[in-house]
Amino acid sequence: MMKKRGQTGSGTGAATLVAVITLLIVLYILFIPPESREELLGLNETTDDDSSTTSDGTKFKPYNKTLTMACEGIPGRVDYLAQKEVEHNIPATTIMTKTSAAIIKEVRSLYVKDSLFSDSMDNITFNIDDISNTKNVLLSFLIKEHSGRLIITLNNREVYNKEVFSENIEPIILPKEYLQTENVLEFKTSGIGMVFWKTHEYSLENIKITGDLTSVDAQESKTVFLVSSSEKDNLDKAKIRFVADKCDESVPGKIFVTLNGYTIYSGIPDLGTPVTYEFAAERLFGGENEIRFRVDQGCYLVDQIIIDSELKEAFQPFCSFELTEEEYEDIAAGREDINLSLTFGADLDVQGIQKVNEGKIFINNNARNFYTRALEENWVINSYVEEGYNSIKVVPRNKMYINKLEAEMY
Prior knowledge:
Layout: H1 2-31, H2 34-41, E1 52-53, E2 59-60, E3 65-66, E4 70-72, E5 76-78, E6 85-90, E7 93-96, E8 98-114, E9 119-120, E10 122-127, E11 134-146, E12 149-154, E13 157-163, E14 172-173, E15 182-189, E16 200-215, E17 220-227, H3 229-233, E18 235-246, E19 255-259, E20 262-267, E21 275-279, E22 287-295, E23 299-311, E24 318-323, H4 325-332, E25 338-344, E26 357-363, E27 366-372, E28 376-380, E29 388-396, E30 400-409
Antiparallel strand pairs: 1-2, 3-30, 4-24, 5-30, 6-23, 7-23, 8-9, 8-16, 10-15, 11-14, 11-16, 12-13, 12-15, 17-22, 18-21, 18-23, 19-20, 19-22, 24-29, 25-28, 25-30, 26-27, 26-29
């Protein structure tokens, strides 16, 4: 019985010792610095599963240092210009005015007189809808009876005051400055005065008001064409080219060309000879543009019309960063890697799918291609970097939006 009690006491002491040692270890772990505790417990170990994959299949570890990057043109839109010039072909057009003689008003007869016991006047009203395109307005008539002076006024302004001795007279000019949209011609004779026994009278027949009316229905043509945002943003110079020929035997007048309300050409062109005229590039708008051709008289066929846009060199965004001697040596020795990431802005097609971004990125003149719908591309660029200054340039193959370009060491 004494032996069993001794064995029990020995077991209890051993358990107590283990408990004390465990307690001391726990207290030690709790009070040592966090970095040492994580290292002791193996909490900062990483595996290949923590790595990400670049577009070319290379694995890289989570970054721990972002390099300072100086950029121009990022973030922003980057345009792709496949050509140095853009030609807008405008359809041929015929512009003309047509002038013809017309009878504005015709009256069969009228009679006016002045005598001791009675007098009478008469008038004719007529309208001119387009005074600016009406000229050579004349009044003509035949005289059947005449005595005294015939007095005619147009809108209360005298245009004739003579005694007539024949049946026919020269047509009377109705001055354009007297004409209105609504007009009144008044006819009367001169008063008899003291010769009270006389009668002054005029009997007129076949009275006509005529004029040369110019039709302007085809005087002007209008065409709308489109300019893309890329073309507008990179526009350097602009010019117009066209060839004009007569299309009838009338005397040709001036041609006026307006673009978005601004006159970019006016003159009488050499017939059948190309006309080239440069105009201010800012007259072209992004989106819809309206070009008008107008002639002041005559008839022209205007053909081979081209609006030519000359474009500047497309801007290619670029960035730069510096590597210290120590950083470069770490990369060269394989102790550190450097990752380049290019982040695109969303640009969806009509179906809501992200458009493809295609181009090249140059790291110190070393090219890497990209063709992707993803919003981010990554490259490990260890073999491309240099100590000190490093440059990166993006050369697009389509219009794209770039949000960010970053270089990170890990």
